[in-house]
Structure formats: structure tokens, C-alpha cells
Design brief:
Blueprint: E1 12-17, H1 26-35, E2 39-44, H2 54-61, H3 77-84, E3 87-93, H4 95-102, H5 109-116, E4 121-125, H6 129-133, H7 135-146, E5 150-151, E6 155-158, E7 164-168, H8 172-184, E8 197-202, E9 207-208, E10 214-215, H9 222-233, E11 237-242, E12 254-258, H10 262-273, E13 278-281, E14 288-290, E15 310-312, H11 316-322, E16 329-336, H12 344-355, E17 359-364, E18 375-382, E19 387-394, H13 395-413
Parallel strand pairs: 1-2, 1-3, 3-4, 4-5, 8-11, 8-13, 11-12, 13-16, 16-17
Antiparallel strand pairs: 6-7, 9-10, 14-15, 17-18, 18-19
Helix pairs in contact: 1-2, 1-8, 3-5, 4-7, 9-13
Length: about 425
């Protein structure tokens, strides 16, 4: 297969594939990267090619696939690939591959590429729990992270055979989300939240009218998911309290608590916040709920329907601020539209003052903004009067900006360690 022409404005990604059963998921990672406009060169190990053939990777990438350093020698691929890449992603990264990378071993094309790469490197582990927890693997991971390599937290779940536990490869969509983040902001995933417990709420609450119908909103939960995902990859222990969301897989390294209504979210957030260092209220909580919920489906009749009486839900963010412990950081979100009375930012400033939280993330919504879309933008308002615009980008980029601000403020307070 001949070399495909490289478009100079397309981000160049090297996708390394280690020799584990999760290698089949690399095909979906590859497809998502190429369809989103990236030029991807797949570099598998010999072990990976026993799980997925070179022809599959070549068909999906439009690029030649080689594993050894003695193929296409005149183009010097063992040096060139790393030198010209904008990002190297290895998924799955086996225990053996992580060990080689940590100790500078280079016996195939992929390990040579890792030595020559000067761009961000993302290793996404996949192995059995015992291998991930082995002191040798933990030491290798720590060594790589100390050098600036991003070693992602693996997911928990079904492994091979009957085994379950930590060590599962994160879902392809999550890997691509992390890759996009590192391409946009190479320093977006420092391990600066280690030792902290973070509580994040996400999604939209649903207030039942009857067993069929409910009052709800358009929140997909993606922004809360991004906040939880980025925090976990920055080293935090994360509890995600999720109301209704789109069909999203649990982020790797995150404990998930499912809720439905505003009252259920309120109870869960108070429980989790009691041991959290940082509380982020990104959920879209219904302001009102029906006074009564019918025990049966409300039937359509010839007469006009009865009005639905509403009552106000508790202000969860305000309650969390009131219950805040010394040193705890509370972050709120405000989805605003602006009107003839004030613009989005003015309403955000008023809400920050009213709620009393440490930070408020203000998003303009409507017309394809914020809700039910992949990207976001907004302003990060601080209680000290600082206002930081967050430019349009992925929701992971906005999440990274939020954690940058929180991490900086915690360092200023001298806060570290787990409150729980």
C-alpha cells in the first residue's frame, strides 16, 4: 500500500495498538478520529496484529500499517513518525508496553516512535486488575507520569473470561475525547487533583406528572460527564451524581450514583458533599415540580385538562453553599439566555452574588448552544470578582479550564489531601 498524501492542516495522530484483547476497540477509536478530520497512522505491535489484521487498520485509516523497524527503511519511519506527530495515542497499552515505555526499550516501530515523539503522549491502559495493581506496573506508571506522559485511568468492568474489575479499556468515545483535549491543550491533564475527593452533578432532573409523563429539560449531561472525566484523569477521586442523561458510558475511574428527581439529587449531593473537597453543581435541576403525582396515566378526555399545580423545588446549590465546610470549594453552573432586561453575563453576576458559591460557570443557551451539543463556551466567574472567558471548544476543554481555576485556588489556600 502506498503512502497516503498528508493534508498539512489535519492534526497528525499516531495510534499505537498494544497486544491485548481490547485491540479490537482501537478500530472504533480510529474510525472516530478519522471521521473527525484527523490524519491517523496506526502502529500496532506484532501481538496486536494477532487480534486485528493490518488490512482492517489500513482500510479505516487509508495509511500503510507496519509493526517492524525494517520495513520501508528508506523513509526512516522509526524516527519520522514520532518527529512529525501532533499526538501519540496508545490504546490499548498493555503492562508489557507500559514497562518498555518507562524504561526506554525500543524493539519495534511503536516503542521507537514513543522514544522519538516530542508531542503529547496518551497511554490508555488495558489489562487484568492484578496486573494494573502490581507494584511494578504502578512504579512504571508513576515514572511515565513524572516525565509528562499522560497515562489514563482505566475503567472498571468486564475483563476477559469471567473476570471483572479495574483495568478495562475506556470506551472509544472517551479515548477520542481525551485525545481531542490534548491536541487542543497539551497541558490539560496534569495530575494536580490527586488526594482530592470531587463531587459532580450532571444531567437533567425529571419531575413526574404520572407514571408516563414528567417535567424535564434538554440537558444531555455531557458537560457534567466531561467535568467528572477530566477530574478523574487529573488524579481526583470522583463521585458523579447523575440525573437523566444521554446514553453515556460511565467515565473511567468515576463512581456513578443515579438519581431521577430534584429531591433525589438533593439527597445524594448532600450525602456525597459531606466528604468532598470540591462540589460542582453542573446538573440542570428543575425549579418546580407538580404538587401531586397521579398514580395512573392521566387520560385524554373531551373536556379541558385540569391545570397542573406546581411547587418550588429546594435550591440545592444554595443549600450546599450554606453547608460548606471550611476549605471546601463549591462551583455552580448558570444556563442563561438574556433578555431585554439584562444580558447573559449580567444575569450570571447576579446569580453568583445571590448563591454565594466560590465559582460560577455561565453558559449562554438556546440556538444550538450548550444543551444537546458536543461543544460549549462561557465565562468563569469568581467570588473575588475575576471573570475569565472560556472560548468555544469541546466540553472537555471547558472542564479543563474549570479545574485549572479550582486547582490554582486550592494551591493558594494550601489545601491538599482527601477531606473524607
Amino acid at each position: 500500500m502506498t503512502e497516503a498524501a498528508e493534508a498539512p492542516d489535519r492534526p497528525r495522530v499516531v495510534l499505537g495498538v498494544g497486544g491485548g484483547i481490547a485491540a479490537y476497540k482501537a478500530c472504533e477509536v480510529l474510525r472516530r478520529l478519522t471521521e473527525s478530520g484527523h490524519s491517523v497512522r496506526v502502529v500496532p505491535t506484532d501481538g496486536a496484529l494477532k487480534f486485528v489484521g493490518a488490512a482492517t487498520f489500513e482500510a479505516l485509516s487509508g495509511q500503510p500499517v507496519r509493526a517492524g523497524v525494517f520495513e520501508d527503511v528508506p523513509s526512516v519511519p522509526h524516527v519520522k513518525l514520532g518527529q512529525t506527530a501532533d499526538l501519540v495515542v496508545v490504546a490499548p497499552a498493555t503492562a508489557n508496553l507500559i514497562a518498555k515505555a518507562a524504561h526506554g526499550l525500543a524493539d519495534d516501530l511503536l516503542t521507537n516512535t514513543l522514544l522519538t515523539a516530542r508531542c503529547p503522549v496518551l497511554l490508555v491502559p488495558a489489562m487484568h486488575t492484578e496486573m494494573w495493581e502490581h507494584p511494578a506496573t504502578r512504579a512504571n506508571v508513576a515514572l511515565l507520569r513524572s516525565r509528562g506522559v499522560v497515562v489514563a485511568e482505566p475503567a472498571s468492568g468486564r475483563l476477559t473470561g469471567r473476570d471483572t474489575g479495574k483495568g478495562r479499556l475506556p470506551e472509544p468515545a472517551e479515548i477520542v475525547d481525551l485525545a481531542r483535549l490534548l491536541l487542543a491543550a497539551p497541558d490539560a491533564l496534569p495530575r494536580d487533583l490527586e488526594g482530592l475527593h470531587v463531587a459532580v452533578s450532571a444531567g437533567g432532573t425529571r419531575e413526574p406528572l404520572d407514571p408516563v409523563r414528567y417535567l424535564g429539560n434538554r440537558s444531555s449531561g455531557r458537560q457534567g460527564w466531561a467535568l467528572a472525566r477530566v477530574a478523574a484523569q487529573r488524579g481526583a477521586r470522583v463521585t458523579l451524581v447523575a440525573a437523566h442523561t444521554a446514553d453515556l458510558a460511565t467515565p473511567a475511574g468515576v463512581d456513578l450514583v443515579r438519581v431521577g428527581s430534584a429531591e433525589q439529587l438533593r439527597v445524594a449531593m448532600h450525602e456525597v458533599a459531606a466528604s468532598a473537597d470540591v462540589v460542582v453543581m453542573a446538573a440542570a435541576v428543575a425549579d418546580f415540580r407538580p404538587v401531586a403525582t397521579a398514580g395512573h396515566k392521566i387520560k385524554k378526555t373531551d373536556r379541558d385538562p385540569e391545570p397542573v399545580a406546581l411547587t418550588r423545588n429546594a435550591d440545592i446549590l444554595a443549600e450546599l453553599v450554606t453547608a460548606r465546610r471550611s476549605g471546601q470549594v463549591v462551583v455552580g453552573f448558570a444556563a442563561e439566555t438574556g433578555d431585554e432586561g439584562a444580558d447573559v453575563l449580567e444575569y450570571g453576576r447576579a446569580k453568583l452574588k445571590r448563591k454565594g458559591c466560590d465559582w460560577l460557570v455561565v453558559n449562554a443557551v438556546g440556538d444550538g448552544k450548550a444543551f444537546e451539543v458536543e461543544d460549549n463556551s462561557g465565562w468563569l466567574l469568581s467570588a473575588d470578582g475575576t471573570e475569565t472567558p472560556v472560548p468555544h471548544g469541546s466540553k472537555a476543554q471547558l472542564a479543563s479550564a474549570v479545574w485549572d481555576a479550582i486547582s490554582s485556588s486550592l494551591k493558594g489556600r494550601g489545601t491538599s489531601g482527601d477531606a473524607g
